[in-house]
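Recall that a protein's primary structure is simply its ordered list of amino acids. Everything else, from secondary elements to tertiary packing, is in principle encoded there. The following example makes that idea concrete.
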Amino acid sequence: MDETVDALRKRIITLEKINTALMHRVERSVDTSASAYALFERTITLQDRVDQYTRELEAKHAELTVTLAQLRASEDLLARTGEAARVGGWELDLRSGAVRWTAQTRRIHEVPPDFVPTLETLFGFYPAAAAEQLRAAVEACRSEGTPWDLEVPFVTAQGRHLWVRVQGRAELEQGRAVRLSGPFQDTTARREVEEAIRRERRRLQYVIEGTHAGTWEWHVDTGDVVVNDYGAQMLGYTPLDFRLLSKDRWWALVHPDDAEGARGMLQAHLEGGCPYVDQEYRVRHHDGHWVWVQQRGKVVEQGDGALPRLVAGTVLDVTARRLADDRLRETNRQLTEAESRARQLADVAEAANRSKSEFLANVSHEIRTPLNGVLGMASLLRDTPLAPDQRRLVETISTSGELLLGVINDILDISKMEAGRLDITPTAFVVGDLLEGLAASLAIRAHQAGLELVCLVDPGVPPVLVGDVARLRQVLTNLTANAIKFTQAGDVIVRVSPLVLVGREAAIRFSVQDSGIGIPPQKVDEIFEKFTQADGSTTRRHGGTGLGLPISRQLVELMGGAIGVESPEGTGSEFWFTLPLTLPATAPVSLPSPPILEGASVLIVDDHHAHRELMTALLSGWGMVVTAAAEASTALRLLRDAAQRGTPCAVVIVDAVMPGYDGPTLEALIRGDAALGAPALVRMVPLGMRAEAQGEGRPDGVVVKPPRRVELRRVLCDVLGGAPPPRAPEAPHTSRQSLRASARVLLVEDNLVNQRVALGMLAKLGVEADVAGTGVEAVRAFDGATYDLVLMDVQMPDMDGLQATRIIRETAAIERRPHVPIVAVTAHAMQGDRERCLAAGMDDYLSKPLSVSSLDGVLDRWLDGQSRTPEVPTS
């Protein structure tokens, strides 16, 4: 349009010049001849043409103005459209090398307004492979004029990863490319949508393939029916056979007895009478037999009028299920006939279970009752003055009785598990306390076997967890006791480590590793079976019932965990189990570390690596600066180095039993060298060994291996001269003694031996008790006196402890007497015994055989009035 206007302007200027020249000639001419007149007329004609061209030019100018306005509006619309569609443009001048971007292209690149693009920076926005691809496309277009259309990955100036579509073509002059240009589009959103569609299509295809479902579409306005390949194959047809399927042809295949009902449901759905179609009917197969199909579907597209446009759904072959339903009805008939006989068998089985439970309960009672006398008397005898030989005999009696009790408990646990009567009771427990208790209970056994027992808790394990701590302790005790039994020399290491911690959920791994004999490969899969041992021969060195590991496996599985073993024969074993546990709803209260321990330097001297690791983790958690040595010479060198640096060691913790220089000898060497700075000396001795027996020089402090955290902190504070560590408030010992001495306790027990045992243990704990031999005597004694605590046997002649408790509670309610704690003391240990005792009105449950510690715990709870909260250490 600009060229047209310019041409008109040039022609007008030419005509004006000719007209001006002619007018001058007319003015100069005096000739009035015909030629002059013709010249004049030509001039007038030219003038008219000039006027005409002027008018055309003005019209073209007006038209151009309108066109320019429309062009600006179009450019504005194009810019807004490009911004919405994320489409920009680009241009590369091959002569100057200049690159020009539209505003939208700059926005896609996320560059500032003053950014000047160049050919090199242009390729810098693409990953290496994409940049190389674009370079090749640009070169081909420049040299050969080949256009391109590429979709490639792209990284903006702000680091965002996108996908863009880059198109380009060449502008030629005299056969050579002088300019490259094209659109530039952000296709990230489209690709994401396409990928989502592809995923949905794949998912739908997987569903169809996995269920062998046929799909159908009914185009209501045309009557056409479209069935997929599975739908056609279901009826024995090829997809080509069903290509031109119509509604009428489909209904012709439906069984006459089913057609009316099937049509009726479909019509009801079309009229809005039901939200969807879900029906079963028979359709004739291509080979002539009938196929039961389940048709489901609904309107998916509504037409302009009252009728829908498209109905779609699935069709499944349910012939096998329908046949199975027929068989099931026949089976149900047969089952109904067999129910009466099954009830009879169930009654017989229930009677057998009751007999078995009663038998086990009686066996438990009859064995525990005399065993209570044996272990109780041995415990009391052990606290009297005895000759060494006599003490060994008493220890043998106690050990044998404990082993017998363990066998009884194993058999009862197996019986409970088989009857499904073993429950899990989650409670909050301190992990460190659990392992310390385990170590204390087995330390003597490990020491007698010449083994080092070490319990380690990895730093990532929460200090307090929620689970069935009694069952957890039982599994750990079984595995650790086994490890001690089958290990000739070396160590047994118990470790707790975290697997997964998410929110309040935790997966914890427990392991027991020994340096024992290992397990033959052919026996690994059998050791968790009941009554099975790795060595079942008559010449075996290690006894046992073979129930410990099966019980452990069933307990772990009951708690939702898994158990296993890794055991190369001859190199030791590692038994492990994992448990899903939880963290308590409220965070535990942690006691702060004593300030005197913060920054104090300590040297640990122990030849056992695992124990050094345990002590290092424990002391580091209290803020101490820890150094460790495996033997005396290294320890002395470290002490000299520290003293020469001007930072002498404050405390040295020495293992009493080490090869080469033992603990007392090393202590003497340290005391004899003044240059070492006179550190405080703490000796670690095995449980049952006196510190004074290890040497003439008395250490500044003594702890028993494996050390308890509370005891170790107290000893360290003592030797460093600081205040003792904080601990939970506790009633003064003298106050507890006075409470127990003044308390009135009634012991109800029909067995004379057990009476003596219980009275002896109570006297040892500072309590004197009255005795009733039957339930009748207990009720009579309760009527005549006021008691602070009643220890009630359950199985007694004439009136058992449950009935006596009910009478006492009823009498107290009528007479409005204060509540007196009644604790069941029974040899029954089957599932439900505790619940029956509590239901009868008892407050607590104590299983025979009795021990001083268990009886002390009962007195603590019900007589002393103490509420004990376990201390949560800081490490």
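The first helix runs from residue 2 to 28. The mean pLDDT is 79.
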